[in-house]
Every structure is written in C-alpha cells, then in structure tokens.
Amino acid sequence: MHARLGLEKKTRNDPYILHSLTIWLETYMHWNDKLTNASLDETFKIIHPFYDFIDCSLIVDMSEVFLQDLILSDDGCSIVSQLKNYKEKADKLRFSVQVKHLNESLKTIYKEHIPDTSHMPMISIKLHNPWHGSNISGLSLLIHNLLPVGHQQSIMKYITISSGSVIIKYSVYGSTADSLIEYTGGKLQFMRLIGIFSLYINDHPVLQEDENMNFTFELALLEAVTAGNNEAVEFLLELETVNVDHTNEEGETALMLACERGHEDIVHSLLSAGANVNIQDNKGWTALMIASEHNRISIIHMLLQANANPHLKTSDGSNALMLATTNTLKNLVVTYTKPDLIKLNKWLEPLVNWQSFGLLLPGITQQDITTIEDFAMNTEQSKGALFSKWLQKNPTATWRDVLGALTKREEINLLQTINDQLQVHQCTGGMTII
C-alpha cells in the first residue's frame, strides 16, 4: 500500500517516472510489451499475481529504485527501510514454516481474497513424502523452476495443498495450457530427480509414475549427479535440507560420483555448497584419487584449491600422486604436497632476498621478518628460521605457495630448479609424503 501511494505521489510530480517504471518492470520480469501504455492502476493489476505477504521481493526491489528518498511515516523512516524490515521478517517465515502446515493457513489467510482461477491453466503436482518437511522457500523454488521465466507468480495466492502425499494445485496466470504442456514436457528428468512423480496440466498427463516410498533428497542428489543433471543438483542444494556429504552403500559421495564422470559444473556446485573433499569411501578412495585416476585435470585443480589432501591413502596404500595417470597430472598433484624443511633449505639455498620472498608466503608477516632479522646470525639461519616459522604458522602450506612466491619475485632460475626437483622426486618416489 505504501509503495503504491509513494508511486502515485511521484508520478503526479513527474509523469515520466511511470514510463521508467514500466520499462524497469518489463526488464525485471522478462516481459515483452506487457506494460506498454499501461496506467499506474493497470500496472499494479498486472503485477498483483507476482507478489504476496511472504514473497515481496518485487515490491522491495521496485521501491529501492523508485522510492529511495520517499518518507511517508511520522517517524522519518523511509518506505524502503520499512519494506526491507518487513522482508526480513517474511524471509524468516519462509524458511521456518513447513509445507505440511500451509494447507489450512492458506485458506484462512486468503479466505476473503481468493482470486478467480477458473480461466487459468491448472497444474496438479504430486510430490514424494519428504516434501512435507520442506519450507515455503523450497516450495517457491520448486514452482519457479517448473515455470517459464516471467510466469512464476505468488504461490500463496494461487496454490492449494492437499494431505496424504504432497499434492499441489497451482493456477498459472498469463499462460496457456498448451504452452505449459510443451515447457514442462522438456523437464521430465528434472521433475523425476527432485521428487515429482505426477504432473498434470488441466487433464493432460505430462508425467505419471508410481510414488517411490524410499525417496529422499540425499538419494535424489546422488541420482542427479549420476545423471549429470546440473539443474537438478543446484535445485536440491538450494533446498538447504540436503546433506551434501551423504554416501551410498559403497561410501561414495555426490562429489566422488561427479569426479568419476567428469561433471565439472556439478563439482563446482558441490564444492560451493561445502562438500567435504577429503571423505574416503569404503576402500579409502577420495574424490581427488578418483579424479586423478580418470585424468580430470580441471577437476583436480578445483579439488586441490578446495584443500583436498593428496596424502590420504587407499586401503592398499595408494595416494592421489600414485594414481595420477600422466606426468602432467603428477606434476599438478605434487605441487599441492606439503614442503619439508630440509628440501626448502636445500632447494632455496641460492635465494638472496629472503625477506621479500617470505612476505609472499601465506601467513608470514612483517613482524615475523623483523623477529628473524633480530635473532638470526646470517642469511642461512634467517632462511631456515623463515621456512620453519612458515610451516608452523601455515599447516596447509604447499609447494604451490613456494612456486607462486618465486613467480611474483621473478626468480626464474629458482622457479625452474624447484619444478625440476619436484618432477624428479615424484618420478623416483623420493617425495616425502606426510
């Protein structure tokens, strides 16, 4: 209401604002000429299906652009501030109220304001039982992923939920049944993977299968990864109820399955969701070992940057370095192994400007350099103290850190020497594995 009043006041003072508003809304909603020549009243009627008391992002975002400086309350608080405060409370509700509690609540809230849906296509969806425990945010995410962009209106105004299996009936404003049948028909695998076992548009069956009483979101994630369906993977991860590190009977995680199949986008999604890179399966294999065996260079980079441990061993004593199938892979893995003090002192013996080099090592500070300078007798002792301090302060130190510091210092000869030494040691088995 306040946003509407604020825009009425603004447009009275500057009619061009309405033109800017309609252009902004069409861009925001991915519409094409839907608001051309619309009055402010007509504009609000058209956008009415796309927000409600619990999902007010459209109104908040619109107000931030057009009502930033407008104050309508006696306390001097701007409309935007009031709306943002309200949205924070609404978001908490979205993430706390479960689907199973929505049915009666919706009837009560909208008893006097139920829209006429008789001329709208009706989507009837049956979901597996775990959806009962999902929250409103998850349900909204489901609807938004099922419908074309620009047709994902308020779930609170246009949805009914039945007991038993989760049965959702959702009226779609501004779409035809034929267009929805065509669109959802292209998402059959996605629907099966996320827990939909039946979907009708009016009386037309788009998907009809038996309910799977063993369905869980964790098993769905493993199946989505195996199928290589990144859309389903990202959807399940966004639900925030899925244990990303759930394992199958062999002890394999979703991350391991993605590494084995070379699904780089899915690996990235899982790592972004906090997947544990160092879980070992029933035979002691890690995601890094699997990626190494299958020659997945890009994935190995991602895993190592996510602090995958190259020193973990399988039940037969192999590690990722031993399982790497090419010298390129071996060289990559070995740069992420932990340096030891003896090799640092020996291989970096020609290093002269140890102070500047040291400041490029993760964890080393100017105070560390000053302390070493005060107590060390000569350059050799200073470098030894520096390397010892670095390994002590940085438990995740790797040869890659050393190579990076040398590169920034443009110590080309030393850089080549250490690269050569690392290759020799990984080929001869001389690398110290900690």
Written description of the protein model:
The protein is an alpha+beta fold. It has four domains: 2-96, no CATH class; 99-208; 217-332, Ankyrin repeat-containing domain (Serine Threonine Protein Phosphatase 5, Tetratricopeptide repeat), CATH 1.25.40; 341-428. 53% of the residues lie in helices and 6% in strands. The chain has helices at 2-13, 16-29, 40-47, 57-66, 79-96, 102-109, 136-146, 155-158, 177-185, 188-194, 217-227, 230-238, 254-261, 264-272, 287-293, 297-305, 320-323, 327-334, 341-347, 354-359, 366-375, 379-393, 399-408, 412-428; strands at residues 122-127, 159-162, 166-171, 196-201, 204-208. Strands 2-3-1-4-5 form a five-stranded antiparallel β-sheet. Strand 2 and strand 3 (166-171) form a beta hairpin. The longest helix is centred in the N-terminal third of the chain and has 18 residues, at 79-96. The radius of gyration is 29 Å and the shape is extended. Residues 109-114 and 429-434 have low confidence and may be disordered.
